[in-house]
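Holo model, manganese (II) ion. Inputs:
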Amino acid sequence: MNLHEYQAKQILNSFGVNIQRGVVAQTPEEAVEAAKEITKETGSEWHVIKAQVHAGGRGKGGGVKIAKNLEEVEKIAGEIIGMDLVTPQTPPEGKKVHQVLIAEDVYYPGEHEPEEYYVSVLLNRATGRNMIMYSTEGGMDIETVAEETPEKIFYEEIDPAVGLQGFQARKVAYNLGLSGNAFKEMTRFIYALYTAYTESDSSLFEINPVLKTSDERIIAVDAKVTLDSTALYRHKDYAAMRDIREENPTEVEAGEQGLNYVDLDGNVGCMVNGAGLAMATMDLIKQAGGEPANFLDVGGTANAERVEAAFHIILKDPKVEAILINIFGGIVRCDMVAQGIIDAYNNIGTIEVPIIVRLQGTNADVGKELLDASGLNVHSVIEFQEAADKVQELLG
Ligand code: GDP
Ligand code: MN
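Output:
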């Protein structure tokens, strides 16, 4: 589960990571009140106003702006709230902004130039260990840094038996070129960040940029957090941070019906039982020259009710030109699945796109006979390859 920046910062702060003073606001009036409160503490009139959406690159899309007084706070908040923010990480039509974070501007010039770094903690799946990834090139797309100057990205792997060691935190601060108070603050920052990551059962904590202020303090200016959804039962307070408005509505609806559905960009809808088979089916579709429109695991009980629900979900996507149903009858019998498909089809009425059904396993032949005799616009096959050929043929 992803969080908004302001929520991620609340978690960071609770583990002792330095953040800017900030308040979230739903309206320009609330934004002004927030700015007044912050000014009382900081004495500064300058604030940063940041769109809260689940997407990075907000700065580039006009979702991060500086206000030098209360009038500007009101004006900018009014412009950002309600806008469809388009960034390299949003869909082309953008994401609706429902709230903004008002925070103190911590980039004020001083004795030293403010500097930006990149620090993240994530799971290295290749080694099965958590690692700290960091770079002096903060504020930029880390993907671009990785492509153009990979030598500027450092990695520090954590041994799970002993946890993060002091020398490792110091090494990060050293490699970032820090000294004096900033060095000390950075080692503390790394410790607190790593603790936040492990204690919250996250799979990603990405701070880009980490700021060294002109008075040598280290602050998390941005925060992207991905919590492990399967561990949310241990964190009721974090689970309550879910913002359903940020999620794909079809995926939310599928989830409520117990269907494991992920929306994709292609033209062939998939209905499969089992995640592994679903992955293999997506490969098969690609091989046949199509592109999967979704991942959909209907689970073990592929009965009429679930098949119908799955049809409804898949057909919400206007890009779908064909549907491939691939069911392995191990525990579930193929003739029951076939009957489920026929019943679901009849309940829906007409389905405009062709349907290819591949049933294999217990009573596969009986299932195929049922489908062939149904008179519906369903192409029934037994072999995986036949299904692929049929998809190719139907898509031309
Ligand atoms: P992102 O674009 O979604 O990654 O949002 P960030 O929070 O990283 O902000 C984007 C950029 O805005 C940062 O890299 C900074 O350069 C700038 N920025 C963010 N906060 C402040 C601030 O408090 N003051 C100033 N002057 N610039 C800021
Ligand atoms: Mn950022």
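The chain has three domains: 1-19+107-247, 21-105, 248-395. The domain at 248-395 is CATH 3.40.50.261 (Rossmann fold).
Archived with the compound record.
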